Amino acid sequence: MTDLTALTIAGIRDGLATKSFSAVDLTRAYLAAMEKARGLNAYIVETPDRALAMAAESDKRIAAGKMRALEGVPLGIKDLFATEGVHTQAASHVLDAFKPTYESTVTANLWADGAVMLGKLNMDEFAMGSSNETSYYGPVTNPWRSTNSNAPLVPGGSSGGSATAVAARLCAGATATDTGGSIRQPAAFTGTVGIKPTYGRCSRWGVVAFASSLDQAGPIARDVRDAAILLRSMASVDAKDTTSVDVPVADYEKAVGQGVRGRRIGIPKEYRVDGMPAEIERLWEQGKAWLRDAGAEIVDISLPHTKYALPAYYIVAPAEASSNLARYDGVRYGLRVPDDDVIDMYEKTRAAGFGKEVKRRVLIGTYVLSAGYYDAYYLRAQKVRTLIKRDFEQAFAAGVDAILTPATPSAAFGLEAMALASPIEMYLNDVFTVTVNMAGLPGIAVPAGRTADGLPLGLQLIGRPFDEEMLFRAAAVIEDAAGHFTPEPWWQA
Amino acid sequence: MSVDKDTVKRVARLARIAVSDAEAEKLKVDLNTILGFVEQLNEVDVTGVEPMTAVVAMNAKMRDDVVTDGEIAGKVLANAPGGADQFFVVPKVVE
Question: Do A89 and A95 touch, CB atoms closer than 8 A?
């Protein structure tokens, strides 16, 4: 029998339908692969018993001819999603031992469609990071290594566990979340496909909150079609999240293969940043050529406020985080460091429970919201955000269907390579992705090439609100031209 | 604008995070780096620009004013580090 973990979700669907293998066989293959890959540290918790029970249920459904959209598909779940009775800590110590008594809407949607849960995936603490090095559970190692060195590389972040698990075939697909680039940057670093849908497309209910006006869930998958299949199941309007939007969920898979003939793709000149590596520049040119060859019209556009997106983000996101993370006080759930005085208990609990990056952002957020500074920082940043969104609206109003940019300013970098860098250097990883969150738009990262030393690089497509279909069409064109990227399984040795 | 060590300690107190003097010193450097970075927003002319308050333009959703759940004290308290007898337990706050 061929290696079942090599199959895409579309391939699993076909194989289960024709009874070439069972859902239990498939889940066992993944559990075995996970065991051999523990050194990558992608999973925080494995849930083999639950996985096998869910797979057995899927086999019953298949035998009864009642297959659902994701029947028997083994998935990894980012530790940010509440999963009933199962470890949910946002990779933070402050949520020590937390096991929710409820299920997030996104994961409930996946289970209702027949998917199988393999376990909870590592991530940056509270989704704050771009390298998966801020996790309480230690860093994740990228399954990709440079052709001339065996030095470990980061998988990006914050969804580093999700991206690694998908790239290393430790799950068929994974849930992830994106507040400033946390789906698209790790997807680009690992040769996988990641889409952050429009703000409001997926319910945020049961997803541990970081910055509520920016957070959005989405999938990381092996290819564009799989990302489309997963997003259709994850997306829904939800009475429990009033920011979820009541727009019908499209059959995104149908968009894959429809091409871009006659469509207009914008190239924003402001994304050509100083010091951008020639490899990224070439990749971008190559992407333009592929889309042009497929019949799209390539037009130069301007998004003048692009350079202000990252500084505005580092006011808005920490401000919202400082408010959202106020709930971790040692009273209702998670870690408690006891003290006779209640204020001391809060302060000691939060000091022991939060990691360095989280403390940094909570303090920045508290400062910019404090009396006397609110107008100078927060209010100004929200005004700049209006201008960033307006730039995109004007480009779309002028007839652009999607915007093509690089996904990241570099390929994956070394573990601990940024240990002595200033926080800003790490933040610059999100320079191309953060604009999309600020404007609430959908964005997809798709693998498009490799560096001279063999590491994957991705391109990003940005679309109109709720036009994820256009992104799947254009991303599939790039994927068809660029091919697929699979790392050598050195970790199995 | 930049912050000094006392400001860091005051903000940490507001955020209810205990910081040592050494941590405050390090955080002061980090915070000033970030505040220096966001300073460039002052270049932008925001005259007459409304602050963004909603990501997607839509009317606030209304629902019927009815009780939709409850009677789940056990579930609410299930993860409490000091829960006892249907109450959260905290250190004494009044003498």
Answer: yes
Residue A303 located in a structural domain: no
**Angle at CA of residue A289, ends A388 and A458, nearest 5°:** 60
Q: How far does B15 lie from chain A, in Å, by closest CA?
A: 6
Nearest 10 degrees: Cα torsion A83, A86, A90, A92 = 160
Q: Concatenate the DSSP letters of all residues of chain B into one string.
A: ----HHHHHHHHHHTT----HHHHHHHHHHHHHHHHHHGGGGGS--TTPPPP--SS--PPP-----------HHHHHTT-TT-BTTB--------
pTM beyond 0.90: the answer is yes
A78: annotated active-site residue: yes
Beta bridge partners of A460: A405, A445
| Contact at CB, A422 and B15, closer than 8 angstroms | no
Is residue B56 predicted with pLDDT exceeding 90? no
A97 part of a folded domain? yes
**Burial of A45 from C-beta contacts in 10 A (0-12 / 13-18 / 19+):** middle
Q: How many residues does chain B have?
A: 95
Indicate whether A181 belongs to any domain.
yes
**Closest C-alpha among A297, A338, A314, A355 to residue A89:** A355
In chain B, what residues touch A374 (CB-CB under 8 Å)? none
The residue with tokens 């860093």 is A139
C-beta of residue A365 within 8 angstroms of C-beta of residue B31: no
Q: Which residues contact A272 (CB under 8 A, 6 or more apart)?
A: A281
B63 chain-A contacts, CB cut-off 8 A? 239
Min CA distance, B83 vs chain A (Å)? 8
How many structural domains does chain A have?
1
Check whether A472 has a pLDDT greater than 80: yes
Q: What residues contact residue A373 under an 8 Å CB cut-off, 6+ apart?
A: A367, B1
Q: Is the ipTM of this complex over 0.85?
A: yes
Residue A167 sits in a domain whose CATH number is 3.90.1300.10
Residues of chain A numbered 220-259 and touching chain B (CB < 8 Å): 239, 242-243, 245
Secondary structure letter of residue A248 according to DSSP: P
pLDDT band of residue B83 (cuts 50, 70, 90) is: low
Which domain does A206 fall in, by range? 4-262+401-492
Instruction: Dump pLDDT digits (tens) for A211-239.
Output: 999 999 999 999 999 999 999 999 999 99
- A240 falls within a domain: yes
Contacting residues of A for B44, CB less than 8 Å apart: 305, 308, 380, 383-384, 387
Calpha distance A276→A278 (Å, rounded) = 6
Averaged pLDDT, A347-353:
98
Instruction: List, in order of start, the domains of chain B with CATH numbers.
Output: 5-43 (1.10.20)
Tell me the count of A-B CB pairs closer than 8 A: 162
- For residues A86 and A47, the answer to whether their CB atoms sit within 8 Å is yes
| Cβ-Cβ contacts under 8 Å, A440 against chain B | 55-56
**How big is the CA angle at A435 (ends A432 and A439), to the nearest 5 degrees?**
155
CB pair distance less than 8 Å for A383 and B90: no
Q: What stretch of H or E contains A268? A: strand A264-268
* Torsion angle, alpha carbons of B63, B67, B68, B70, to 10: 150
